[in-house]
């Protein structure tokens, strides 16, 4: 499926990256400079800390067993 908006965004993103020879550090620095020059307030939150007792436990697949069944 061809989406003209997605195509335009990708074209602009590629042109911007090409200006910096696809150097991610240089692209990042440019974006940060543009943020400062814009005068807008950008919010960045610190990563959330997960308390050890609230870490979700990952278990294996669950198996449904009917009551009184001897098999797993």
Task: Calculate the mean pLDDT score and round it.
Answer: 84
Helix/strand structural class = mainly alpha
Q: Into how many domains do the coordinates divide? A: 1
In angstroms, what separates the terminal alpha carbons?
46 Å
List unreliable stretches of 5+ residues. Answer: none
Rg, alpha carbons: 25 Å
Q: What's the overall geometry?
A: elongated
| Main sheet record | none
Give the helix tally. Answer: 2
- Strand element count: 0
Helix content: 40-55%
Sequence of secondary-structure elements: HH
Residues in β-strands, percent: under 5%
Can you walk through the features of this model?
This protein is mainly alpha-helical and 72 residues long. It has helices at residues 4-19, 24-38. The chain has one domain (4-54). Helices cover 43% and strands 0% of the residues. The two termini are 46 Å apart. 0% of the residues are buried. The model has no long low-confidence stretch (mean pLDDT 84).
What layout of secondary structure does this protein have?
Blueprint: H1 4-19, H2 24-38
């Amino acid at each position: 499926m061809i989406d003209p908006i997605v195509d335009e965004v990708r074209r602009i993103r590629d042109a911007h990256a090409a200006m910096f020879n696809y150097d991610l550090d240089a692209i990042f620095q440019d974006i940060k400079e543009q943020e400062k020059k814009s005068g807008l307030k950008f919010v960045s939150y610190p990563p959330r800390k997960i308390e050890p007792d609230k870490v979700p436990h990952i278990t294996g697949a669950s198996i449904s067993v009917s009551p009184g069944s001897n098999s797993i």
